[in-house]
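Re: that chain you flagged

S.,

Sorry for the slow reply, it's been a week of failed gels. I finally had a moment to sit down with the sequence you sent. For the record, here it is as I used it:
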Amino acid sequence: MAIENSDQAMMPKMDISVRPIEPQGNLYGFASVTVGGIKIDDFKIVENKDGELFVGMPSKPDKSSNTGYRNTVYVDKDFKEEFTAAVIGKYSAAVQAHTREGKPERMADQVAKASKEAEKHNAALPPKEKSTKTRGDRE
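Prediction finished late last night. Pasting the structure tokens below so you have them in one place:
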């Protein structure tokens, strides 16, 4: 049973959350979308061969498919442009929020920075006292 919306121009209320990642090939992040109380996870933010970002639909393995996967969610053609613009807009805002001087901080740089902070913290801790108890003295 299909539910039809009499007002085709009305865009449903969407809550979009994105998770940028360190790029892996052409994969740049993931998105979740909640529409009318229904949450859909695993949208992929992907770069095409022209360098433009687009939204890939959630999918699952399917041996009978030409690509080896099949989409589990479809977005109506009339709505897809608005949907893609909304997701890519949220992604761009998230990336800009985590940038320095217009360049994203690489994951490797974040790990190195955290490692240096941990070393400083550990160096400030008092040295551990060695136990004088022998194995037989312990309970």
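What I noticed first: The chain has one domain: 14-122.

Talk soon,
D.
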